[in-house]
Design goal:
Blueprint: E1 10-14, E2 23-29, H1 37-47, E3 52-57, H2 73-90, E4 95-105, H3 107-114, H4 118-124, E5 134-137, E6 143-144, E7 156-161, H5 170-181, E8 186-191, E9 205-212, E10 218-220, E11 226-228, E12 243-248, H6 252-271
Parallel strand pairs: 2-3, 2-4, 4-5, 5-7, 6-10, 7-8
Antiparallel strand pairs: 1-3, 9-12, 10-11
Length: about 270
């Protein structure tokens, strides 16, 4: 195994008006477009509920352009970013280290979801710390990791539009059902007719140059190699099962419902002992 190249990334900390000495916080992970208006709006919305937000920029420090050609390894790299964010937030004098959740969108949602796997907690979590909740917006739930039945006992929530043709909802439905059978606190909130990125500020539109994940499924082989289950080879955007063209953009109704759901969920979670 070779060592990676050290990289420095940054983030912006949004602090609410404090009504207590130490406030709860969320580590926030952007999607494939980098930091967009939806992430900033969520940071301010959560601030309004008394929650601090650390919005991590996973791209700039690595020299990754926004809307770059698909590299779905990004989502897995962002798992590390999430845990580095947890470690940093836990040291801030205004943040309660026992009340930090993680939330992400699309690729960031993938990272927020898979950060709940016990193996990644063991690899990356600071000693004695764990996220108290995992919130994933329209993630690609298409990877079967080894030991993926071993996940956190903390609550996990997925929010997904039923009309998402970029990262379809069906694999997430399957994963949630499997984890629920294991007794895990996992729920999927489905928004009828909502597309990918339903919380974006820009209107719904079609992107002909991008491909949806369709029916593609990936799995982890020995030594951590992630391959297309159907071909046994690294996944490519042109693999069979992908779909040509995707739709993404705002669905105001779905966004409004998501705000209610997330703020209520975090309020309840942060009150738990």
């Amino acid at each position: 195994m070779t060592e990676g190249i050290p990289e420095t990334i940054t983030g912006a900390l949004y602090l609410p008006l404090r009504t207590e000495a130490r406030v709860p916080a969320v580590t926030l992970l952007h999607g494939g477009g980098g930091i967009e208006g939806n992430a900033v709006r969520w940071a301010r919305t959560l601030n309004g509920s008394g929650v601090a937000v650390f919005l991590i920029d996973s791209y700039t420090g690595r020299g990754i352009p926004t809307h770059h050609p698909p590299d779905y390894a990004d989502g897995r790299t962002m798992i590390v970013d999430a845990y580095r964010g947890l470690a940093l937030l836990a040291q801030h004098p205004a943040v309660d280290p026992a009340r930090i959740a993680v939330m992400g969108f699309s690729k960031g949602g993938e990272a927020a979801l898979y950060a709940s796997l016990t193996r990644f907690q063991r690899m990356h979590a600071p000693a004695g710390l764990e996220f108290v909740a995992y919130i994933a917006f329209y993630p690609p739930c298409w990877i079967t990791f080894r030991s993926d039945e071993e996940v956190s006992d903390r609550p996990i929530r997925l929010l997904h539009g039923t009309a998402d043709d970029w990262t379809p909802i069906e694999p997430c439905q399957e994963d949630v059902a499997r984890l629920q059978r294991q007794g895990k606190d996992v729920q999927l909130l489905a928004y009828p007719g909502a597309p990918h990125g339903f919380d974006m500020l820009w209107p719904r539109q079609h992107f002909a140059a991008y491909r949806g994940l369709g029916t593609c499924r990936l799995e982890e082989r020995l030594a951590g190699e992630i391959v297309n289950r159907a071909t046994g080879q690294p996944w490519r955007p042109t693999d069979a099962g992908t779909t040509e063209g995707v739709t993404a953009g705002a669905d105001p109704g779905a966004y409004a419902e998501a705000v209610k759901a997330v703020t209520a969920f975090l309020t309840d979670t942060f009150k738990r002992p």
